[in-house]
Design a protein that fits this description.
heterodimer, A: 0% strand, B: alpha+beta, 3-stranded antiparallel β-sheet, 5 helices, 3 strands, globular
């Protein structure tokens, strides 16, 4: 196996993007080195391996950081869409509870049902507030969103206990959305700073 | 995007430079060079104390291109080294300002060490 073939194998330690960009140049430079050095010596190969061992991990780490930033950007977009859907669901929840409350006024409704409706309105309003808070890309906004989601979840659980006939859709939205968003808000959204040149 | 933001920053914000980066920028201060010429220039200037391998050299060049300190100036064969086309690199205006700022910083450090008689005197 020629020295160049061995070097080409060593180059596999570098990230694919870097290889695509610089492999030809690196092999050319290695060929130049081979012409001016004795490739049969241990010192030559120790220097080559040392160079790969020193530079490849740093370039791999930089490639992972770049990929991490791309994933973070995608998550930011998804979170924005989720926040908009949350705002709409909050509005829909408030409207639904108000309409149900008005309909209930015509018939005979007990106190627990009315209390459950009020709790439903509160939970929906908190959901709406959480959606608005997530749309603000600040640490305080995220903290406020977490508190609003937690409060909304607790209120909807209380409403469910008071009013066991709550619709499956309301339960799914009231409990599923806050739990999903609370998990999503734990994802690291700030990318690590650029590595020094 | 990153390149543009970094290029807007003052030269001092890039300091201190890693030794390999400083040596590459100093080598490029002579004019445009290809990878092997940079490597030879660094080795000659540092009296063989700094030997850049291909990985270290191109890893540093990639970062220097991304930060806008260096730019590619074309691809052509070096008559002294065969027919293979080689990529040439040169300093940008920002790169020149940064290497000057780093040289001034190092010079100030050396002068401080000399004032303290840490260098320039015969050891007793």
């Amino acid at each position: 196996m020629s020295a160049e073939a061995i070097y080409r194998l060593l180059l596999r330690a570098y990230p694919p993007d870097f290889r695509a960009e610089y492999e030809r140049e690196m092999v050319l430079l290695f060929r130049d080195q081979c012409q001016e050095s004795d490739v049969r010596t241990l010192g030559f190969w120790a220097a080559v391996i040392c160079d790969v061992a020193r530079s490849a991990p740093a370039l791999r780490a930089a490639a992972w950081r770049t990929r991490g930033r791309e994933i973070t950007r995608t998550i930011e977009v998804i979170m924005k869409l989720a926040a908009m859907v949350t705002v709409l669901l909050g509005l829909f929840g408030i409207l639904n509870a108000v309409i149900e409350g008005l309909a209930g006024l015509k018939g005979t409704t007990d106190g627990t049902y009315k209390l459950a409706l009020v709790l439903g309105v509160c939970a929906s309003a908190l959901l709406l507030a959480a959606g608005v808070a997530i749309l603000r890309p600040t640490q305080r906004g995220r903290q406020a969103a977490r508190l609003a989601l937690l409060a909304s979840l607790m209120i909807i659980v209380a409403a469910r206990l008071l009013h066991p006939w709550m619709s499956v859709f309301s339960q799914l939205v009231g409990m599923g959305v806050p739990v999903t968003l609370l998990i999503a808000l734990h994802w690291p959204r700030r990318a690590s700073p650029l590595g020094a040149a | 995007m990153v390149k543009k933001r970094r290029a807007d920053q003052p030269p001092e914000s890039h300091l201190p430079l890693p030794p390999a980066t400083f040596h590459i920028l100093v080598a490029l201060a002579d004019g445009e060079l290809h990878g092997y010429a940079i490597m030879k220039g660094v080795a000659a200037r540092s009296e063989d104390t700094v030997r850049l391998g291909p990985g270290t050299l191109y890893g540093s060049l990639k970062r220097l291109l991304a930060t806008g300190l260096v730019e590619e100036s074309g691809e052509r064969a070096d008559p002294e080294r065969g027919d293979e086309r080689r990529r040439y690199y040169r300093l940008t205006q920002l790169g020149l300002s940064v290497v000057r700022a780093e040289a001034r910083r190092l010079d100030a450090m050396v002068r401080a060490a000399r004032r303290k008689q840490l260098i320039g005197v015969r050891p007793t």
